[in-house]
Amino acid sequence: MVKGSREGMALLEVLVALAILFAAGAAAVGGVQAALAAERRSALLEAEATDAERLLTALSLLTRADLDLRLGVRNVGEWEVEVLRPEPALYRIALSRKGRAPALVTLVHRPEAAR
Predict the structure, then answer these.
(1) pLDDT tier at 12 (50, 70, 90 boundaries)?
(2) CA torsion angle for 46, 49, 55, 58 (degrees, to 10)?
(3) CA distances from residue 89 to 57, 62, 64, 81 in whole angstroms, order as listed
(4) Phi and psi dihedrals of 40, rounded to 5?
(5) Whole-prediction pTM value?
(6) Phi then psi dihedrals of residue 94, to 5 deg
(7) What is the DSSP string of the chain?
(8) In whole angstroms, how far apart are CA 92 and each of 9, 37, 78, 79, 97?
(9) pLDDT per position as a tens digit, 32-51
């Protein structure tokens, strides 16, 4: 082979290696960006779940009279709260984001007071 063609091949190999390195670096940066976005979404969902849990806990501690006053659907902040009484001593409390399926649901038993 001629000396000039060897130098040309070496330059070509370096350029190919740099292109491969650049492609791998771009993929790594894309992966890091996707991971950071997923972490942000996860933090938002966790904060939302914590808020819902606090509200549901507070509602589940209400007395029978307080639950009777809240029968139906009401907006509490960003949440839609639905309180139903499927049985005389049983209350169903459901939390959902406005217009969505319930995120949390619980049943509480509140017997009638003895007379």
Answers:
(1) confident
(2) -90
(3) 18, 13, 8, 19
(4) -65, -45
(5) 0.67
(6) -125, 135
(7) --HHHHHHHHHHHHHHHHHHHHHHHHHHHHHHHHHHHHHHHHHHHHHHHHHHHHHHHHHHT--HHHHHHT-EEEEETTEEEEEEEEETTEEEEEEEETTS-EEEEEEEE-PPPP-
(8) 76, 36, 19, 16, 17
(9) 999 999 999 999 989 988 99
The answer to whether 57 and 49 have CB atoms below 8 angstroms apart is no
Q: Measure the CA–CA gap between 10 and 60, rounded to whole angstroms.
A: 74
Give the model confidence (pLDDT) of 77-103 as tens digits. 889 999 999 999 999 999 998 888 888
Separation CA 43–CA 40 (nearest Å)? 5
In degrees rounded to 5, what are phi and psi of residue 26? -65, -40
